[in-house]
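step: validate -> pass
step: tokenize input -> pass
step: predict -> running
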Amino acid sequence: MSEPRRPLLARVDLWWALAAGLLAGVSYWQMAAPGLLAGDSGELQFAAWLAGLSHPTGYPLYLMLGWLWSHGLDALGLAGPARAMTLLSALFGALAVGLTYLLTLALIGQSQADNRTARLTERIAALVAALTFAWTPTLWSQAVITEVYTLHAALAAALLWLALLWRQDVRFLPGKRTSSLLAVLALLFGLGLAHHRATLLLLPALLVFLAWQAPAGYWRGRQIALLALLALAPLLLYLYVPLRAPASPYLSIELWPGQPTALLDRSPSGLLSYLLGQSFAGEIQGPVQALAAAPGLLARFAAELTPLGLALALLGLAVLALRRQWPLLWLTGASFVLLTGFNLFYTIGDIAVFYIPSYLLACVWIGVAVAWAAEAAGRLASRRWAGRGQGVASAAALLLAALPITLFWSQAAQQNRSLDSAAEEGWRALLAADPARAAVLVSNDRDELMPLWYLQQVEGVRPDLAGVFPLLLAQPGWLDVGQAVESALSTGRPVYLIKPMPGLELKAELGQPDASGLTPVLGPAIVGPPTFAAEAVISDAVRLLGFDVQPAGDAMQIDLHWQPLRPLSADYTTFVQLLTPDGVKIAQSDQQAGGVYYPTSLWQPGETLRDRHTLTLPIDAPAGPYQLLVGMYQLVNGELIPLGAATLALPQLPN
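step: predict -> pass
step: emit ->
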């Protein structure tokens, strides 16, 4: 005789989930960025508005939803395109929190030996888990800007929750061969793949779980084929990429008159590479490096969940193991291992956001631990005070609600982006400085240029300007910001830096920046041979071609002409010493050549660079002629390590 069927989902739990999502959503909405943002956020803001393309892998589901959402809110007068897309992140974040509540409650319920409706204790525990996840620093940071990761978190939570609902359903209906839950799960998995490729990491855990928990004879070929079709059908959304590529005008740039350059390879192989994100393949490291990074996981999770949260997550994992809930342990544990393990191999700069689904699972385990601890407290209390066990259990669960409350208060000020208008204000100030028509604006950082592209594409502001940055084009001349400046000058158009970049005077003659930071580039730094030839080679690494000398009152300006012979692995300091004929030093200048923006590690073999030093002459300096001693060194842990031997540049430098 089968046991009484437990409802798949009680209506009251939908209200609890809604309350959790609303509580998180209100905090996200209050702290969301007010408008235009830099980086990928700015790019997604204009790409969604135009139904265009963003960076690989395209995110077609997100961009289509973003187009509908941003145009809808704009038509209703509720938010402009930029603000609307940030509110969409907040909405998906709130949805992820609500789904985390439902996932946690289902996991707690199925980990119990008995079959009963959820108790208040379990609901409080699920709420603690959901709100802890809501206010983990990384999820919160993505819910208050325009980004793709809150939707990814919502889809991951929904997939795992549906798998648990299916398990509960199939345990009470062993003869049922089809399930609408499976159909929804398969379709949702496909939509997840149409959004973010990391969804694929959940597939092994889901497949094994479904095969393990299905009754004998449950699976049939036609059913499997139908589910596979439902999972693959959403991948047709990737047709959005070739269809919308021609409608993305920012993917073509005309730096030289009559020579438009495509920023996206629209050939079949180029589009496939874009869809697969092959440009990120170089970010995958080997097993040795991944294992070396593994010990840092505890610190990472403790920083995200607090040490108490980390301890509770480990306790929840132990509770599932002690109860021998191996299927539940597999579904959550294998998913966690695959998601987290991949992150150890992936070294992309914003890897922190890839841990969000791992934090979600850890918070689910926190819910299991809170429910277990509360029930244990209730049992102890009932032995001493009959009839008070449930009250004590609920009070214990509420006590552990201090965890999300602590997270909220400790993180609120840091995560608040409601006053973050720096990107928009900075660019409006730059454009108000009125750069010359058809000018090329250069940055060392792609992220800084995205607000300009937004203003041009969405608001139609200064479409004559071209914004460029390193690696804009996958061809020589764009490897670094120095080459970007050189390429910009080769167009014959006016060129500006969007901010002061000390060190680029090695490559270009720079004018004075204005109040906005706009800095004119007047031309190349070197236009001819040095006044004094040297032709000295240092350590087979760099050649000193010579130098120019310019008196400046009681100082002497020395412009060294360097030519790298091979890539340099370190950022070296160059020095110039002024010596008397008998070798007595009377003045010296040391500086990191190229500063922050063009240090020696970025120098390209064959280019010629101007390294300007100013030597202050003492009042009692003896009469010339002088000698120059020139060289390079690096400081490692306070130790000076020279690059080869210094060279005596010219024994007859006049006074």
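step: describe -> The chain has three domains: 11-250+285-415, 422-524, 532-648.
step: cleanup -> pass
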